[in-house]
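Ticket opened by: R.M.
Priority: normal
Category: complex prediction / small molecule

The reporter submitted a protein together with calcium ion and asked that the result be attached to this ticket for the collaborator who will pick it up next week. Submitted input follows.
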Amino acid sequence: MHTEQYERDSLTGLLSYTSFQKAVALYTEVDPKGMENGKYAMLCFNLQRFKVINDLFGSDGGDKLLLFVAKQIERLGGENCLASRTHSDHFCLFIPITDDSLPGRLDAFTETIENCAPDFEVICHVGVYVTNRSDIRPDGMIARALLACSFVKEAVDKRYIYYNPSMRTQLLLEQEIINNMGKALEEEHFKVYYQPQYNHTTGQLVGAEALVRWLHPTRGIISPGVFIPVLEKNNFIVKLDLFVFEKTCALLRRMIDEKVQPVPLSVNVSRLDILYPDMPEQMEAIRRKYDVPVEWLRVEITESAIMDGIEKLTSFIEKMHKLGFNVEMDDFGSGYSSLNMLKNLDLDTLKLDMRLLSDEGSSKNNGAMILTGLVRMAKWLGLPIIGEGVEHKEQADFLASIGCSYVQGFLYSRPIPEEDFFEMVKNQSIGEIKPPMQLIENMNSAQFWNPMSIETLIFNSYVGGAAVMEYRNGRVDLVRVNKKFIKELGEDLTEEDVLKWQPFDYMDDKNRQIMLDTVHLVIETNEEQECETWSQTPIHHKPICMRVSMRMIGNSSDNVMFYILIRNVTTEKNTMCDMVRREKLFRAASEQVNIYYWEYDIKTKKMSPCFRCMRDLGLPEEVTDYPESAIEQHVISPEGAERYRVLMQSIDAGLASAEAVIPLTDDHIPFRIRYTTEFDEQGNPVKAYGSAVPVGE
Ligand code: C2E
Ligand code: CA
Ligand code: CA
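Result attached by the on-call engineer:
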């Protein structure tokens, strides 16, 4: 391509927009066949947040960046390319296509751009149109590439997208949505549906989520998945969410007026609502207008709102709490937040979407493990979980088995119109969503809560540690404990700590099975039985071995009560089970702090990562050929690879401990890596325990 005679952009030296179009037009004239057969591509580039860059680094800094990007675009285009800066931070590139290397080159290009500034992530979105007709003009190509470019999403890793014709249809639909939304709201074409939430264990209705639908006069029902993203681009969503909230309040008002026992209703608030300063006040005004007690109202915020800054989210939650609203975290576990972030957010409930776990080819087993981990996290936070998107009974059964009984999904009901929901609430037994621990207050009907009863007397004067334990649906709960029982578990624990503790959650499968077998034996024989089980203590998660003897003291249709007597036999057991203890301590401790950890077997070069490593980095339960395989997969970033190898060599060679700061993952996040080596009796290194903490934590 000879372009010497063309006019150029003074900053970057690329073709001016007019010259660029002229030059491209020549190709359409000269090679219409090639145009038709996909032998050329038009690419449009759009730098994200370029304004911010200018503000931060001055216009000199901005110019430098533009120059750099221009060079990279030319490099990407290769010899026979035409490149232009069309205006400010927008670029176009026209190239012949001779092979299928373009996607690979684009990956390399976007990565180079992303890493060009040390402290600032520069993101460039790219739209690609591969020519498919002979009669297309340059501006037509550019329009298509630009359209594709607008489909690149902030939150997704892919920075470039190829044009396809359905994008035009979608654009038209978007335009139609924007043109009609105002009228649709006025004429009440938006309808609120309700999807009930159930306690899978008791079958009771516990709440519902309000979900909006657009009943379009000609198009039929349009799903929120289609129009919400469009409305989120133009603030209209705030109006719509307030509308949905108002309808929800009106429904609750109607329930109260018609003496129907209400259930709590959740409404969705979008990311934009959170940024909108008046939202809590406006909602409160609507609530008052309908005079609905605030306990029947909940708001769902999405995990992705964290991307707009944790302070905004925190202050929104705080405001809502002050007004008395419950706040639920939607799509918990979708990957935006870590346990650490969640700990700092004052949430009331977590919603866990089953669908988030089922895709991406994650094996069934892995999914179950992640779920269990997430549910356990929720318990640490003391929060109830609602499982969402539950379609099959097995999913609900599984969720219940790991302590999450509240479900919402097609298994029970699809979202239904207001009228149907109203009828449903009338005819159903209502339950409530409780925190995962069942505390003493909830049980006061039984005789042994009476301080004057014989039972109480025996209970308190009994020489050893004693408790009342409830067994129900395969789970055990402590419902009452005496002082000595608490002492057996740990000197510094309070009664509440111990009552919150659900032994089965702190036991491995084997020990749980031992306990369960004993429970069943007691029920069968109605005689006292004894067993020994390992578990972790409340709060400190110390492994302890308990000798438990149990006796049945009562039963109802779905639960059985036991008196249990316990003795802490850990010290006796410890000498025998030193290895078991170590392993448990290790797991328990590391799961509580913000670190990644793993075990590394020096001989076999196998690495066993912790749950967080598996979740965040997608590692399998066992990684072979460590660290080479991890380097290959960019778990350790290429620039840190050499240093990491040296670190590992020193561990292999028998250094007792070692430490280094090394960038991990393709995001090059610096982590402090520490290793501690374990030696056998002969002093040979056998294992090393590795940990990684983000630098600055
Ligand atoms: P979401 O908040 O996660 O809502 C749950 C979505 O999952 C709903 O989709 C619901 O119909 C669907 N769902 C529930 N159970 C199942 C199941 O078992 N299987 C499958 N495949 N899907 C199930 P819907 O109603 O299409 O809403 C989609 C999204 O649109 C919602 O996701 C929410 O983010 C947004 N949305 C809906 N209504 C509103 C609203 O009033 N305001 C705002 N801001 N967003 C809304
Ligand atoms: Ca939701
Ligand atoms: Ca959800």
